[in-house]
Amino acid sequence: MEQFEKNCKYMQAKNIMINYSDCIKPADGLTYTNHKKSNERLSEYSQKFESSEGLALMWLNKRTKKELDIFKTIVKKRENS
């Protein structure tokens, strides 16, 4: 928590993305207790807190070149069947 607080002061962030979500499990890693403690300890920054849902979805939807090649192969096989 101390390092996080130092980073907030140093970076003067406009928004602070934290890992919570009502509907996307991979973006919901912050416990209620940790969220509460973060809001209490970092109250001067809590108005900047935002869910990182969008970032989590972007990360989950990223595909490696190998995955894309496999998908292309599957599509071609499907089209030819």
What does this structure look like?
The protein is built from 4 helices and 2 strands. It is mostly helical. α2 links the parallel β1 and β2. It is elongated. The mean pLDDT is 84. The longest helix is centred in the C-terminal third of the chain and has 16 residues. Strands 1-2 form a two-stranded parallel sheet. It starts with a helix and ends with a helix.
Features:
mainly alpha; elongated; two-stranded parallel sheet; 81 residues; single chain
Give the overall average pLDDT. Answer: 84
Radius of gyration: 19 Å
Helical proportion, percent range:
40-55%
Major β-sheet, in short?
A: 2 strands, parallel
Beta-strand segment tally: 2
Question: CA-to-CA gap between the ends?
Answer: 56 Å
Helix-strand pattern, N to C?
HEHEHH
The order of strands across the largest sheet is 1-2
Overall structural class, as computed from helix and strand content, comes to mainly alpha
Contiguous uncertain segments of 5+ residues: none
| Number of alpha- plus pi-helical segments | 4
User: Which of globular, elongated, flat, extended, rod-shaped describes the shape?
Assistant: elongated
Task: Explain the layout of strands and helices.
Layout (H helix, E strand, L loop, with lengths): L1 H10 L4 E3 L13 H10 L7 E3 L1 H8 L4 H16 L1
Parallel strand pairs: 1-2
A few lines on this structure:
It contains four helices and two strands, in the order αβαβαα. The chain has helices spanning 2-11, 32-41, 53-60, 65-80, and strands at residues 16-18, 49-51.
